[in-house]
TrEMBL record:
Membrane topology, as annotated: Single-pass type II membrane protein
UniProt function note: Essential cell division protein. May link together the upstream cell division proteins, which are predominantly cytoplasmic, with the downstream cell division proteins, which are predominantly periplasmic.
Keyword Cell cycle: yes
Record topology, Cytoplasmic segments: 1-3
Name assigned to this protein: Cell division protein FtsB
GO biological process, one term: FtsZ-dependent cytokinesis
Location of the protein in the cell: Cell inner membrane
Any coiled-coil regions, as ranges: none
NCBIfam families: PRK00888.1
Principal localisation: membrane
Cellular component GO terms, alphabetical: cell division site; cell septum; plasma membrane
Organism of origin: Methylotenera mobilis (strain JLW8 / ATCC BAA-1282 / DSM 17540)
UniProtKB keywords: Cell cycle, Cell division, Cell inner membrane, Cell membrane, Membrane, Transmembrane, Transmembrane helix
Length: 109
């Protein structure tokens, strides 16, 4: 009887091995599901970026406003007969403090 029980325990252990540690084990399935979820998040981010780029390409192909905006911001170009003012942010120079008053030089009445 003990030998039969031992045989059944060994047989059950052999049947459980592929389920837990084999090629299609639960751990492998869990890891693949995690990788799929990460890839889906990346795909969502990339789809949003691609949508933005598609809109920009459509804008550049169809109208002059987007081209003009790019020329102004990236290349620093201006239109003909247009006046360009460049504002430079600088700290204003500090005013010099008034000269110290010498008490000996004041006149006494």
């Amino acid at each position: 009887m003990k030998a039969l029980t031992l045989i059944f325990v060994i047989l059950i252990a052999l049947l459980q091995y592929p389920l837990w540690l084999g090629k299609g084990s639960w751990l492998r399935v869990w890891d693949l599901n995690r990788q799929v979820a990460l890839q889906q998040e990346k795909n969502t981010t990339l789809k949003a970026r691609n949508g933005t780029l598609e809109a920009e390409v459509r804008d550049l192909k169809s109208g002059k406003a987007a081209i003009e905006e790019r020329a102004r911001s990236e290349l620093g170009m201006i239109k003909q007969d247009e006046v360009f003012y460049q504002v430079i942010d600088q700290a204003l120079p500090e005013a010099l403090p008034p000269p110290p008053v010498n008490p000996s030089s004041t006149t006494k009445p």
